[in-house]
TrEMBL record:
It holds the Pfam family p450. Gene3D superfamilies: Cytochrome P450. This is Uncharacterized protein. It comes from Fusarium oxysporum f. sp. pisi HDV247. Keywords: Heme, Iron, Metal-binding. GO terms for molecular function: heme binding; iron ion binding; monooxygenase activity; oxidoreductase activity, acting on paired donors, with incorporation or reduction of molecular oxygen. PANTHER family: CYTOCHROME P450, P450, PUTATIVE (EUROFUNG)-RELATED.
Length: 323
């Protein structure tokens, strides 16, 4: 996607910081280092989203802390609790007024300040689109989009990349097959890893898609509130009612369809798929075409899904190529 390509230089600046931090820790440990890989990937994803959305990285990879990130994390925990226990809504909403004001302030500052550089990030693109047609993209819409990228995009990207690495370590044959594919693409460790190069790598894409199928970061969907009365199947939901839309049944039906269409998968037991090599990826070879792999189980927009893939591919390629 063109907007992702425009954001790529910003992403690579954050990835370079991660490389530097890992090299520093290895040097301090005499050539090796024990790290919390999820913590680093989560910090990287948050830094990338901040860099691409609000004009500057949080610096979490190097510093490990940022007040805005802390507020976001606390808000997500509170929102998850409210979704799990709906009765809590009787005591108010989990909205963080200060977090809302911070995001609004960033948007207002961008609107009223003169551009000092040629750098374009996601917020610039949204503001330009709103200026062209404010009826289709209002300021409230822009603020909502920024929250989606900050709240949802960073965590799902980090979880996806972490699960990919976990499954690759559990399956050495798949790990070596991916490493061979990346070695063919990258002549040296200094070659840049860009989405344009990795977009058509069948094994890399298969690993990510298969991991999303087996361990989706948002398998159950999210709560939705009906703004007006709506009929869903045989049920009428009045305005203001919150409801859950679960994609698991639909995903299971799709998997059954793929099993029927693919002889190589005919022996897979849906109730228990323990490892990557028992399903789509076997002995380091593709079990089926990557384009037929499921993209997601959780409910996501295509744009958000592409961001998750882009933010997962780069660190995954980095770790596999450097290891």
């Amino acid at each position: 996607m063109s907007y992702l390509k425009a954001l790529e230089p910003l992403m690579h600046g954050c990835v370079q910081v991660l490389e530097d931090v890992l090299e520093e820790r290895c040097a301090a440990g005499g050539g090796t280092a024990t790290v919390n890989i999820y913590d680093l990937l989560s910090s990287l994803a948050s830094d990338i989203m901040a860099e691409c959305s609000f004009g500057g990285s949080f610096g979490l990879v190097r510093q490990g802390h940022h007040p805005l990130k802390t507020r976001i994390t606390n808000y997500m925990k509170k929102a998850a609790l409210y979704q799990t226990i709906p009765l809590l809504s009787l005591f108010g909403k989990p909205r963080d007024e200060q977090l809302d004001a911070i995001v609004q302030g960033i948007i207002d500052k961008r609107l009223h300040s003169q551009k000092e550089s040629e750098r374009r990030d996601l917020l610039d693109m949204l503001l330009e689109a709103s200026a062209e047609n404010s009826d289709k993209l209002s300021m409230e819409d822009i603020k909502a989009e920024m929250f989606v990228f900050l709240l949802a995009g960073s965590d799902t990207s980090a979880v996806t990349a972490t699960f990919c690495l976990m499954k690759l370590l559990e399956n050495p044959a798949a790990h070596q097959a991916l490493k061979r594919e990346l070695d063919e693409l990258l002549a040296s460790s200094s070659d840049p890893i860009v989405d344009e190069n990795t977009h058509n790598l069948p094994y890399l894409n298969a690993v990510i898609h298969e991991t999303l199928r087996m361990l989706p970061p948002a398998a159950g969907g999210f709560a939705r509130q009906a703004l007006e009365p709506v009929t869903v199947g045989n049920y009428v939901l009045p305005a203001g009612v919150s409801h859950w839309r679960c994609a698991c049944k639909n995903a299971t039906n799709k998997i059954r369809h793929w099993l029927q269409q693919t002889q190589q998968l005919s022996t897979v037991i849906l109730a228990s798929i323990p490892t990557l090599t028992s399903s789509f990826l076997r002995d380091g070879s593709l079990g089926m075409q990557a384009k037929r792999l499921p993209k997601r189980i959780g409910i996501r927009s295509q744009q958000a899904h592409e961001c998750v893939l882009a933010n997962s591919k780069v660190p995954l390629s980095l770790f596999d190529d450097r290891c």
